[in-house]
């Protein structure tokens, strides 16, 4: 049997870091907002004629072979892949290979998208039959096991469902609302740029989480500002008033930079300044900050011209579309 899967990555517009449990419970009406993009993570899972287990990452060029499921729990090699395979427990005699299309350390939730793609493939391959919401819980919990710090909720929803999402973070649970947005029109208003610097979300998020729980008032107020910006963006998306996103994105970025000295870098600020001289509006880093990608708004009809001028200046502009669908799994050979 051969199963293949793919899941989109995402651009987070506002509310990141707020989505880490239990931080969102300390704020009123916590929310994040994001959209899925066409830079998928992929997984291929196939049976083997022997009892070997072979795991392979096409991104890192690393591979590992195991004699049984129990060894998957304790290995330090390809830990995400190994822990997910250990959880689903396919009958021995299988091979899993994975790969992504987003830049490494991009802040586009590539690891979470890959997690969902692997979960989707294993769910079908083993006949486990978990529904999408349960797969999100499995993916989130296994990722926390692997990175050894708490992980947020929002990144798993665009990978699972695609489109544009408002994620409500409540005492009752986490809920997604699909926002009815013209995806092509929205994509024309955003440029995606890679700063050239990789980042580590676990480091920044863990520092912020500890300070929040310890009662740091500056972190609390920054979270309040980030949530306020997220609400404004949801209103703008619902109404189709995309011009209003500029100021809200700037508000989010202002408060996010106050969370930690490592959120922005001189290189990031230089790119933002250059883009604004070309007519760009709001800007913010994707993910936890410290490097990776950034998203910048542009007026209607200006995306192509601004992108061309940025590329001429040596800026790494990423081509993308908003992905209308989430994880897709198919049987290639039964």
Explain the overall architecture.
The chain has two domains: 2-179 and 323-333, Ribosomal Protein S5, domain 2, CATH 3.30.230; 183-318, GHMP kinase, C-terminal domain (Alpha-Beta Plaits), CATH 3.30.70.890. 39% of the residues lie in helices and 25% in strands. The chain has helices at residues 70-74, 79-88, 110-126, 132-147, 156-161, 183-187, 201-213, 217-239, 245-257, 266-277, 303-312; strands at 2-14, 30-47, 53-57, 62-66, 94-100, 164-170, 173-178, 190-194, 283-285, 293-297, 316-318, 328-333. Strands 1, 2, 3, 4, 5, 6, 7 and 12 form an eight-stranded mixed sheet that branches. It has a four-stranded antiparallel sheet with strand order 9-10-8-11. The mean pLDDT is 94.
- In one word, what is the shape? globular
In DSSP terms, counting alpha (H) and pi (I) runs of 4 or more, how many helices? 11
Structural category is alpha+beta
The average pLDDT value, as a whole number, equals 94
Briefly note the CATH topology name of the largest domain: Ribosomal Protein S5, domain 2
The gyration radius over C-alpha positions equals 20 Å
CATH architecture of the largest domain: 2-Layer Sandwich
Q: Could you name the ranges where pLDDT drops below 50 across 5 or more consecutive residues?
A: none
What is the share of helical residues? 25-40%
Series of secondary-structure elements, N-terminal to C-terminal: EEEEHHEHHHEEHEHHHHEEHEE
Task: Compute the separation of the termini in Å.
Answer: 4 Å
Domain module count = 2
Largest sheet: 8 strands, mixed
Task: Name the CATH class of the largest domain.
Answer: Alpha Beta
Strand content: 15-25%
Tell me the number of strands: 12
